[in-house]
Amino acid sequence: MLAWRYLRARRREAFISVIAGFSFFGIMLGVATLIIVMAVMNGFRTELLDKILGVNGHFLVQPIDGPLTDYADVTARLDMVDGVVFAMPYVEGQALVSGPAGAFGALVRGVRDVDLERLPLVGGTVIAGSLENFDTGKGIAVGSRLARSMGVAVGDQVTIVTPRGNATPLGVTPRVKAYPVAAVFEVGMSEYDNTLVFMPFAQAQLYFNQEGRATAIDVFVDHPDDVGEMRPTVEKAAGRPTFIVDWRQRNTTFFSALEVERNVMFLILTLIVLVAALNIISGLIMLVKDKGSDIAILRTMGATRGAIMRVFFITGAAIGTIGTLAGFLLGVVVCANIESIRQFTAWLTSTELFSPELYFLAEMPADMDNGETVTVVVMALVLCFLATLYPAWRAARLDPVEALRYE
Prior knowledge:
six-stranded mixed β-barrel, membrane, LolCE_TM
């Protein structure tokens, strides 16, 4: 009761209540900001990981001693490994692709249609055309951004140029060949949608002078985090000298940078909550100064030092607890509607706030981690509780005689 009365604004104590209000809003905004930023960082990592591993395998198996002419047998053995979803041989090369609107560099990958359909980020994201009978046809599948840049649609011809073409007495001449666009896909990651072209496996072997062999084999597994334990089994199943690289080694710099940025942002934003908690200290100290005579009278009426300390501890803890819960609710609401908020803000300011060319993704992700959110809430509560201890201790140590000497 006493703590609640001290929190209510009266004419003489209005300034103290204003400070308590600032402390409340500071803690609420600090907790909400921390939850939102960490959720967006987690969303970035999850989405990028899904996009990267949705197109590239968890293991990359490359030959060492010679060309991969026995790719069919190696692929069959890898498919039998426990925990492997499927293995996909492919032929890959860089080329120049051109259409009516211009020419652009691209990564051309030759795959079998059965494997292409098993890639959910390709087979499940076709926005025009079809991948049916992809092996038997001579068409190609093009990323949506690349198709728009070249000015082509399904059925249009795309010219592919590679410098490694036919060998002649005058040297190697570039190979130029036109293919119709059979399908347009949209992965949702600008790097893939702007550079990736899929070609039938047999056609790619002929085009890149790789008859009867594959460039490498991508292996997809059930649990990407278990690639370290699965490596010896995959190496043994290959049955030939191979060089195997897992997805963590291929993207170590990228994901390490994301992890460092995530940790640094957590530390920086924690300072916002700390500053708000310090406002609780200043507000409570002023409240203790203002309530000196009240404390003295309560002590003379029999209130113990522990009781006085509890009163002011509850006063400060109430600000911190309510502010933390309000910040948690605000953070959850914003994370649940982050894309709608982004679109509204972009419309209101007439600017593109989340460019896919810069951030790789077409939509702003937010993935709240339960453990991380609980950590933020508990950390905010602990900081707020610690901030109330010193003012409450000062109030409990107040000498009634000194407080009432000049009253």
